[in-house]
Amino acid sequence: MMNKVSRTWRRAAWAMVLICLPFLSFTVSAAWEELSEEELERILVEKFEAGNYSAKGADNCLMCHRRSDTVMALFSGVHGRTANPASPMAAGQLQCEACHGPMGNHNRGGKEPMITFGPDSRVSASAQNSVCLSCHSGDDRLAWHGSTHDIEEVACASCHNVHAEHDPSRDKRLAMENCTDCHRQQLAQMHQRSAHPMRSGQITCVDCHNPHGSLNEAMLTQISVNDNCYVCHAEKRGPVLWEHAPVVDNCANCHNPHGSVNEAMLTQRAPQLCQSCHASPHSGTPLFNSGDSAFTAGQSCLNCHNQVHGSNHPSGKLLQR
Ligand code: HEC
Ligand code: HEC
Ligand code: HEC
Ligand code: HEC
Ligand code: HEC
Ligand code: HEC
Ligand code: HEC
Ligand code: HEC
Ligand code: HEC
Ligand code: HEC
User: Fold this and answer.
1) Which segments in the chain show pLDDT lower than 70?
2) Nearest Cα to Cα of residue 251 among 196, 184, 316
3) Is residue 19 within 6 Å of ligand 8 at its C-beta?
4) Domain boundaries, the chain
5) Which residue from 186, 214, 249 has its CB within 8 A of the most atoms of ligand 6, so it is best to mutate?
6) Ligand 6 pocket, residue 251 CB under 6 Å
7) What is the secondary structure of 61-105 as a DSSP string?
8) Which of 28, 57, 264, 285 is the most core-located residue (most Cβ within 10 A)?
9) Ligand 2 mean position to 21 CA, how many Å?
10) What pLDDT does residue 140 have?
11) What is the CA 251 to chain-centroid distance, rounded?
């Protein structure tokens, strides 16, 4: 009799444990949080090599993960569109495991890690990115390897969101907010007195930069700073009869394209700007450099040398006409 009661109790207790198990495992933090980053990555690499993919694809994962709104949002974005045969979720594709890697023994109570993405992930950015690049290495990302963002370990998922209806990169302003989350100096500059119309979103960072890297300086979209500016300021391209050497060399000698406290985004105001190169113009005649004279006041040097970008006038050698 005693025996029977305790057996019933034991059965009931087991049943309770079994019922609660999935809930327990969801509230308990993931077992792999204890692992060092090296250990975690080693396990993930081993799992990839073993290639133990789930036979049921996404259905298997969703048994445990469908309660997360984040997870389910995948199906409203491009990666969840089964109609596109190249989509990871299409029939015959690896589905969730195309990105998160083979399931292995992860379904045994979530004890084995899966690859996670984004700024909070403990998997190195280059390992995360290799997953995305397995489908996206073409076209626009040919220069990703060796780019500053690659070297600085910026993850694709720091800018992109795949479990979402709309990727932030689709919206120019959202994309720019994303850039300025990390680039605080440019954020400050674009709010200064004179700046490209970035605050309104008319021009954004990606009009000049390729966030995936380029073969050019500062990940610019064009081969040089000047070529970048000519895309929109074609009238400055020339050729002109009388060139001003620093203009031909680099517009950024005088302008900060992100913005400045000085008008026309000048890095300094005249006459200091001019004098940073022309230490003592007019053969150093004091008249020309003294305090408030006609030469340094107001528009300063530009009062006379007003064709600072170069002149087409036959006698414009001194950039005065
Ligand atoms: C038997 C239940 C179960 C199954 C099946 C399962 N998971 Fe998990 N998964 C968990 C648990 C438990 C955790 C750890 C707690 C958490 O973070 O939700 C977890 C964590 C994760 C994480 C890490 C989340 C984070 O924020 O750290 C990812 C990614 C993940 N699972 C993906 C998958 C994928 C992809 C599949 C299918 C191939 C899958 N899971 C199948 C239970 C499961
Ligand atoms: C195209 C690659 C890709 C596919 C396919 C994919 N994921 Fe993810 N998953 C990510 C990325 C990237 C993140 C980080 C969050 C983000 O960027 O949206 C993530 C985050 C997660 C998380 C953590 C979410 C949280 O709550 O913070 C879980 C769990 C997860 N994915 C499970 C799944 C499951 C289950 C599937 C299949 C239904 C799946 N993923 C399909 C790339 C993918
Ligand atoms: C199995 C292949 C595959 C993998 C892995 C993959 N993608 Fe994609 N991705 C696609 C396909 C297919 C599209 C849709 C392309 C199209 O419609 O032209 C796409 C589209 C995109 C887009 C454009 C989004 C839009 O709204 O148009 C972005 C951004 C993107 N992927 C980022 C990522 C990131 C980040 C990862 C890694 C976390 C990743 N992808 C992993 C196949 C993949
Ligand atoms: C610094 C932020 C940033 C990072 C990091 C980044 N992207 Fe992008 N990505 C963008 C922006 C912004 C766009 C939109 C570009 C545009 O409008 O010209 C974009 C567009 C895309 C597109 C859609 C357009 C196309 O070229 O097909 C894909 C796919 C994509 N990125 C994949 C990736 C992958 C894969 C990685 C990692 C190797 C990555 N991105 C890293 C910001 C980023
Ligand atoms: C997760 C942080 C992060 C995000 C988001 C990010 N960047 Fe960066 N970026 C960096 C780091 C780190 C560097 C290297 C240090 C520096 O130059 O500030 C860098 C460097 C750069 C450089 C200089 C490249 C060079 O070779 O000199 C440019 C240009 C740039 N980022 C543009 C962008 C644009 C455009 C976006 C948005 C589409 C963006 N970044 C988003 C972290 C980020
Ligand atoms: C009108 C074109 C243009 C726009 C718009 C632009 N940049 Fe730049 N950016 C440049 C040029 C040109 C350089 C190189 C400057 C140099 O050589 O001195 C540069 C350089 C950089 C650098 C390298 C560090 C530095 O200052 O030299 C970073 C980081 C950067 N830009 C980020 C951004 C971010 C973030 C945005 C958007 C908020 C942005 N840029 C918008 C043209 C632009
Ligand atoms: C994508 C187009 C685009 C590119 C590329 C571009 N600009 Fe501009 N720029 C504009 C627009 C639009 C304005 C604002 C014109 C207006 O308000 O009338 C502007 C205005 C300016 C002004 C005048 C600002 C003022 O306050 O009067 C300067 C100086 C300037 N740009 C320099 C540059 C330089 C230097 C580069 C290259 C690094 C560059 N721009 C690249 C579109 C561009
Ligand atoms: C030697 C310094 C210097 C260099 C280099 C320079 N600028 Fe300027 N820029 C100025 C000054 C000073 C002004 C304001 C006075 C004026 O309006 O001419 C100005 C004004 C501008 C303006 C607004 C007024 C206008 O003329 O449309 C634009 C746009 C501009 N620069 C573009 C460029 C571009 C593009 C380059 C490179 C091809 C460049 N600048 C190189 C000094 C320079
Ligand atoms: C980055 C350096 C630099 C800056 C800034 C600069 N210049 Fe120049 N400037 C030069 C160089 C180099 C020459 C060519 C000198 C030569 O050929 O002997 C030149 C030539 C000139 C000439 C023609 C002189 C001649 O003998 O042909 C004038 C006038 C002139 N600059 C005025 C200005 C004014 C005004 C400013 C300020 C708006 C200015 N410069 C800013 C470097 C600069
Ligand atoms: C009132 C008109 C006027 C103003 C203001 C002026 N200049 Fe001149 N500048 C001239 C004239 C005229 C010449 C040619 C005669 C000469 O060489 O003295 C000249 C010649 C030059 C030359 C070429 C010859 C040389 O001496 O190097 C440079 C460079 C120059 N100016 C730079 C500047 C700078 C920089 C400023 C501002 C600090 C400035 N100028 C202000 C009228 C002016």
Assistant:
1) 1-30, 110, 284-299
2) 196
3) no
4) 43-170
5) 186
6) no
7) HHHHHTT-HHHHGGGGSGGG-TTSTTSTTSTTS-THHHHH---TT
8) 57
9) 23
10) 79
11) 25
Ligand 4 atom 14, closest CA: 169
Cis omega (within 30 of 0) for bond into 271: yes
44-48: long-range contacts (C-beta < 8 A, 24 or more apart)? 44/101, 44/113, 44/115, 44/123, 44/127, 47/101, 47/102, 47/104, 47/112, 48/101, 48/102
Give the integer Cα–Cα distance in Å for 296 and 292. Answer: 6
2 C-alpha to ligand 7 centroid (Å): 89
Tell me the CA–centroid distance for residue 71 and ligand 2, in Å: 6
* Residues ≥6 apart with Cβ < 8 Å to 38: none
Q: 18-41: per-residue pLDDT in tens?
A: 444 444 444 445 678 888 999 999
